[in-house]
Design goal:
Helices cover 71% and strands 1% of the residues. The relative contact order is 0.20. The protein has helices at residues 8-36, 39-57, 74-84, 86-112, 119-139, 147-167, 171-181, 185-199, 205-230, 235-254, and strands spanning 2-3, 268-269. It has a single domain, classed as Growth Hormone, Chain: A (Up-down Bundle). The chain crosses the membrane at residues 81-101, 113-139, 173-191, 212-231, 237-255.
């Protein structure tokens, strides 16, 4: 729905937190239904929830349509995304890469230290719960610093927390690091989306957030390729090197100063906040 500018920060944090809640509850719920019966009830519930969400979305209020003067041409929109939103889109690419590394490198890392690779599912549940708590904490107050720097800093902290899991062959270390990293996941997603919203005028938000989702997906796919190439050299190497690549990209971005956002009191459509789960 349309959101007052003062409520934008907590609203986007709540949106991301609800997404993390779905990631936490849904796998356990589906597994429980399969265990009690078979896969058909789980699929039926998924279909019912999807239909309910689609019907509910029809009741959401919409912003007034842009006039001809407000609606940029395709060429102008492309230039706008390239010049204004490139830092945020680059952050989406690196964030998606980090999420892909987490998903694809943790199971073989567990296997290499003598633990069951299936334990990754438990760790990812802990990661999602921690992310939910972190998102709530992030949305409860305003934090110092420009929002773009907040997004980069949160990503760097997340990577720093994960790095010991890639370097130390110990199940407790891997478990603690993966779960603790989740505390910074939802706040990073929220800050990234707020940064993009500040980069662009309202008429370009739809294209901007679509590009952010695409950048996140491209980064996730590249991470799977990178981990797969490095995996024959060792699971810990395949985990650590991509994380260090992400951290290098984040450090470079931290020292790039994007142009200050234009002052605006526009409303923002809620639901554009999440920008994709970090592990999508």
């Amino acid at each position: 729905m349309l959101m007052n500018q003062r409520l934008l920060h907590p609203a986007m944090s709540l949106d991301t937190t609800l997404l993390e809640l779905a990631w936490t509850v849904a796998p356990a719920g589906a597994a429980g239904l399969v265990a009690l019966a078979d896969a058909r009830p789980a699929l039926a519930v998924i279909a019912l929830l999807a239909a309910t969400a689609g019907l509910t979305a029809l009741r959401l209020p919409t912003a007034p349509p842009a006039t001809g003067d407000e609606r940029p041409s395709s060429t102008a929109l492309g230039r706008m995304l390239w010049r204004a939103a490139l830092p945020s889109l680059g952050l989406g690419l690196v964030g998606g890469f980090a999420g892909g590394v987490l998903d694809t490198a943790v199971p073989p890392t567990l296997d290499s230290i003598g633990s069951a690779a299936s334990l990754a599912g438990v760790l990812f549940t802990g990661y999602s719960i921690a992310s939910l708590l972190g998102g709530l904490a992030y949305g409860m107050r305003r934090w110092p610093g420009r929002i773009h720097r907040q997004a980069i800093t949160l990503l760097l902290v997340l990577l720093a927390v994960l790095l010991p899991a890639a370097l130390i062959p110990s199940l407790p270390v891997v478990a603690v690091c993966v779960v603790a990293a989740g505390m910074f996941a939802a706040p990073q997603l929220t800050a990234r989306s707020l940064s993009l919203q500040q980069d662009l005028p309202k008429s370009a938000w739809s294209a901007g957030f679509s590009s952010l989702y695409a950048a996140n997906g491209v980064g996730y796919g590249l991470a799977g390729f990178a981990v797969g190439v490095l995996l024959p050299m060792g699971a810990h190497l395949a985990f650590a090197v991509p994380l260090l690549l992400c951290a290098t990209g984040g450090c470079v971005a931290l020292f790039q100063s994007p142009p200050p956002p234009a002052s605006k009191e526009d409303a923002v459509p809620a639901g554009s906040a999440a920008g994709g789960n970090l592990r999508e």
